[in-house]
Each structure stands twice: as C-alpha cells, then as structure tokens.
Amino acid sequence: MAVAAETRPDPAALLAWYDRHRRRLPWRAEPGERADPYRVWLSEIMLQQTTVKAAGPYFLRFLERFPDVGSLAAAPLADALRLWAGLGYYSRARNLHACAQAVAARHGGRFPACEAELLALPGVGPYTAAAIAAIAFDLPAIVVDGNVERVVTRLFALETPLPAAKPEIRRLAGLIAPEARPGDFAQAMMDLGATICTPRRPACALCPWSEPCAARRAGTQETFPRKAPKAERPTRRGVAFWVERPDGAALLRSRAPKGLLGGMTETPTGRWAADVDLTLPVSALAAEAPLAAEWRRTPGLVTHVFSHFALELAVLAARVPAGTPAPAGARWVAAAELANEALPSVFRKVAAHAGAGRRS
DNA sequence: GAGCCGTGGCC
DNA sequence: TGGCCAAGGCT
Fold this sequence. Notes:
By secondary structure, this protein is of the alpha+beta class.
C-alpha cells in the first residue's frame, strides 16, 4: 500500500501528544529517568492479554517479593506460582521463572540490550522482545501489540483481516516510526490505542492523528481492525470434590506441571468433558472421588469461562474424621493456609461454593 | 495457521 | 446477559 505524503501520519504530532498526556504507571520511568529492564520485562509479561488494572497489584507484589531478576531466579517456582494465582495464563509464570534463571545463567543477571537475544528468552515473543528493546534500551524496535494493530489498521483503513494482516501492519508501523525516541514512540502508540483509539467509541476528536486517519475520514473507524470469525466456545462439565476435616483443613492436589492451569493447586476433580452428565445421582457422580466418604451435593453449579471452553462444575462435599490420611498425590491444607495456595480462580469458586471453613 | 492457554470488566 | 475485549506466546 502506498502512503501519500500529505496523509502520512507525523510521528512528531504523536510524540507531542504523548508528552502532554503521558500516564504514570507503576512500571514506567519518569521523564528523563532510565527505565529498569527488569521492571519493563516483568510488566510486559504481566500485561500480555491482561488489563493495566488487573496487572497493577500483581506487579507491586512481585516487585516487593522479588526486587530484582536474581531474587526471582533464586526462588522456587512454587513461590512465583503462588504470587501469580488469579492472574491467569499460568504458563507466563512458569516462563517468567525460567526466563529469570536464563538471564542469571546466560547473561550474568542483566537483560541483554538486543532484540534477537531477548526473543530467545522463555516467554518473550516478538511483541515483548521489541517492547523491552524499545522501552528499556531505547533501541529502534518496531513494537506491534493489539493497540498498535488497531491504530495502524484504522490509519490506513487496512481491509485484510487479522491475523493475516500482521506482516502488513508491521510494515506500515515501521513506515511511520521516527528515528528519534523509539521507546517513547512505542509507548505513545500503545497509549494512543489504550486511551483514544479504543475498540469502541474512539475519541477521534482528541486524536493527534485524526486528520491523516483514513478510517476516520470514511467514518468507518469502529469497524477496524477486520477480524476472522472466532470459533465457538463449547461447554465441558465435571465434578469437583471438597473434602474437609473437623479442624477445617481441606484436601488439595497439585496439577500436572504443564497444560491447563499447569503447576497450580486444585481441589480434587473428575474429568472435564462435554459428555459428563451432572443430572446423575450423587452415587454416580462420586465415581471419581478421591476417597470414600458420605458425599452431599452442594446445590447449584460452579460456572467458569476459560479462553476456549466454558465449564460447569457440580460440587460434592464431605466431612471426614480427624486423622484421615490424604490419598496418594493429595495433601491436607489448613484453612488459614488456603489463601497462600496457588489456587486459580475456578477452584476458589469451588471452595466458596462448598462453604470453605463454614462450621455447621 | 490454528488451537491451546485465564480472568475480570464492560456494555 | 453473554459476547467481546486486554501491552501474546507456545506448539
């Protein structure tokens, strides 16, 4: 696609807007200050598919517990998973820990000031490598995230649907990038997408690139970016088991190290599948129970939506005598320690549904 | 390329 | 209310 000179977006206009509207964020250096590559990296991993609002508290807790990459590399993976619980996409936490160890082992504890070397680190893909290179080291990397995709496809009214449009978007983003201030330009593009060029109801009247924007000129800005239709989300069903001792301790397990919720803590559950029938009697639902007990079914269901399927969980609860041994692979966790477990949200819902800690 | 991989907020 | 969305990466 050719870009006419008179409609080409001027990077200076965007940088001037950025200087006036620069947001203060926990991981962002003050103007004139040098960015800390560790903080830039940590924030970029947390911000993958995650809102600023959700990531903020996690970032501050991680920084307090792990003030530098060396402290994170030296800590057990379980500590990182516990701190990550609730933020989702848990492979990020596993890769975060692996990346810290790689930086400690391969790079002497300092992040490399090189996009290609950053890209080779666990959990660091094309976007994150470019973002760290630009923001932490002010290298001229082309940073393309979901914000930049939206801004660029609107600027050029790009009809190609995502994800096929990615190479063209990268080329166009490189066309409008300035030689000076690559880090500020990258953050300005993302801030513009996050605050002005939003998915719905973009504030074009406040946009420094309103004039050269092809989609705005046509009045079609909200229809970009074009996207391929999404696959439907199937429903799976299953049974979760809540087992409590008289002292309130609950039976928990650790999940397989990889895959869905990999490495995290869970309540015992049966298989999750579309053909599980939750209308069966309790005696049948208890077929996959972790131990023999007098099960009672908690009324209602726990529902949870994952990225690629929805889940409906029936909850069977039981009280077992003091001294009941934990079955193989499971462990007793005191009620007071439940909050410190690496429990993903779906299992916190199960605990709440079963009335964890409630005396009857 | 496409499926897998969480969660909470929004309208 | 449910579909969509958020600073993606891995296989």
